[in-house]
Specification:
- Its EC number is 3.5.1.41.
- Its main location: membrane.
- InterPro entries: Glyco_hydro/deAcase_b/a-brl (IPR011330), NODB_dom (IPR002509), Polysacc_deacetylase_ArnD (IPR050248).
- It holds the Pfam family Polysacc_deac_1.
- This protein is an alpha/beta fold.
- It has one domain: Glycoside hydrolase/deacetylase (TIM Barrel, Alpha-Beta Barrel), CATH 3.20.20.370.
- The protein has 16 helices and 11 strands.
- It has a 4-stranded parallel beta sheet with strand order 9-10-3-11, with helices on both faces. Strands 4-5-6 form a 3-stranded parallel beta sheet.
- A hairpin with a 2-residue loop joins strand 1 and strand 2.
- Helix 10 packs parallel to helix 11 and helix 12 packs parallel to helix 13.
- The structure holds zinc ion.
- Zinc ion (ZN) binds next to strand 4.
Length: 419
């Protein structure tokens, strides 16, 4: 499987442009030019330390003593819950055979957000600040995201970006841009498959190697993640918690990911955005804010995000990265990047400064992986208030269906593989 990765990523990275800088890549606006393959030496040189791209991980790589040691340190205490499928694919009776009492707090079954195993942190599915949107995008980095990221920059808007490990390896400069722009980067697994359909070791490896890929490229190790399709239960929550990853879900879904596969129309997606805006007007978020599932998946989803930003900004009092909504001022293991507190972020926004304290200092030259030299000015570190409990507030309006997401993922990963 490692040979597969070497061939696929090497083919992607070595075919044409040699080592463009992040600034050169950021300056491109034609999607075809943005998505032309390029070489990025820190990734090319590290391929043997990563599993095959675009396919479910088979487990911890042979000889990876750091990963094995970490997994061995807690594996005996993982809740004894059986995987719901094999190699990231659900068994056909996964839901029909599951007890109605939902003993494992399986989100896919009933959108459970409060774990039943003692000691597990509750999921995050909204933000505690009233009339506030926790703003995030799944499935990046997308090779043609410059117009979208330029737009966010023009609005001094930061967001939470949930990155797929395979995509980070294919689009390292795009991942680096997200870090340098000051966005909050979270893990969205290595291969984007349902996590409850993996073994313990596979689930660990899906998270571990994505964390390593983001660290390799940006210099930062994330402390948050989002399960593909929202598929998480107490077994997976336990594994993620041992990796210091907060679990971020949602209660609203734009279903923007469905358009590429023909399962939804743009008009229907617009209605989903409009319904969120309407709920602000109805007072739905007067006590607790919102999180909606939206995507960096393709040019349509990104343009739709741009088109709707003014409406969201007019409706909500504040739009912030999820970490800012929780005053999580240090979003990475490394301490040389600081997110503003909520008060700092909105204070800065009110003063026209928008994004708070993360001034990107892209230097023009290539950024060495692992150096953590991308951005970041400390914005102070005293949270003004503690985050509220997740799981309250707006009712769940929509949820994902399995088949649709798998189609969209296959398209995403397939596109990445052939680019
Ligand atoms: Zn996703």
């Amino acid at each position: 499987m490692r040979t597969t990765l070497l061939l696929s990523v090497a083919a992607h990275l070595l075919v044409s442009r040699a080592d463009p800088t992040v600034d050169q890549e950021n300056a491109l606006l034609d999607p075809t030019a943005e998505c032309a393959p390029y070489n990025y030496a820190p990734v090319t040189n590290a391929l043997s330390a990563f599993p095959a791209a675009g396919t479910p991980v088979t487990g911890i790589l042979a000889g990876d003593t750091a990963a094995q040691s970490k997994f061995d340190s807690f594996k005996a205490n993982i809740p004894n819950i059986a995987p719901r499928g094999v190699n990231g694919v659900f068994a056909t009776n996964a839901t029909s055979s599951y007890p109605a009492t939902d003993p494992d707090c399986w989100w896919t079954f009933g959108q459970c957000l409060t774990p039943k195993v003692a000691g597990l942190k509750p999921d995050i599915a909204d933000v505690p600040e009233p009339r506030t949107l926790g703003y995030g995008f799944d499935d990046g980095p997308n090779c043609s995201h410059n117009a979208f990221y330029d737009y966010l920059t023009s609005k001094k808007q930061k967001a939470t970006m949930f990155f797929i490990g395979t995509n980070v390896m294919f689009e390292p400069l795009q991942a680096l841009r997200a870090a340098q722009d000051g966005h909050e980067i979270c893990v969205h697994t290595w291969s984007h498959h349902p996590m409850t359909a993996f073994t313990n070791e596979q689930a660990f490896a899906e998270l571990w190697y994505t964390m390593q890929s983001i660290k390799l490229v940006t210099g930062y190790t994330p402390t948050c993640w989002r399960p593909p399709q929202g598929d998480v239960d107490d077994r997976i929550r336990y594994i993620a918690q041992q990796l210091n990853l907060d679990n971020i879900l949602w209660k609203y879904d734009a279903f923007d990911w469905k358009v590429a596969s023909g399962q939804a129309t743009p008009a229907e997606v617009q209605t989903n955005y409009d319904n969120l805006v309407a709920d602000v007007g109805k007072g739905t978020f007067d006590t607790v804010g919102a999180i909606m599932l939206t995507h960096e998946l393709d040019n349509y989803t990104m343009q739709t995000a741009i088109d709707n930003y003014p409406k969201l900004a007019a409706a909500f009092d504040h739009i912030v990265p999820v970490g800012v909504g929780y005053n999580k001022t240090q979003p990475y293991v490394e301490k040389n990047f600081t997110l503003p507190s909520f008060a700092q972020y909105i204070g800065s926004a009110a003063a026209g400064g928008g994004g708070g304290g993360n001034s990107a200092s892209s230097s023009g030259g290539s950024t060495k992986a692992g150096s953590g030299s991308g951005s970041n000015t400390a914005a102070g570190s005293s949270p003004s208030s503690s985050g509220g409990a997740a799981g309250t507030g707006a009712a769940i309006s929509v949820r994902l269906s399995f088949a649709g997401v798998l189609v969209s993922c296959a398209a995403l990963l397939g596109a990445a593989l052939v680019l």
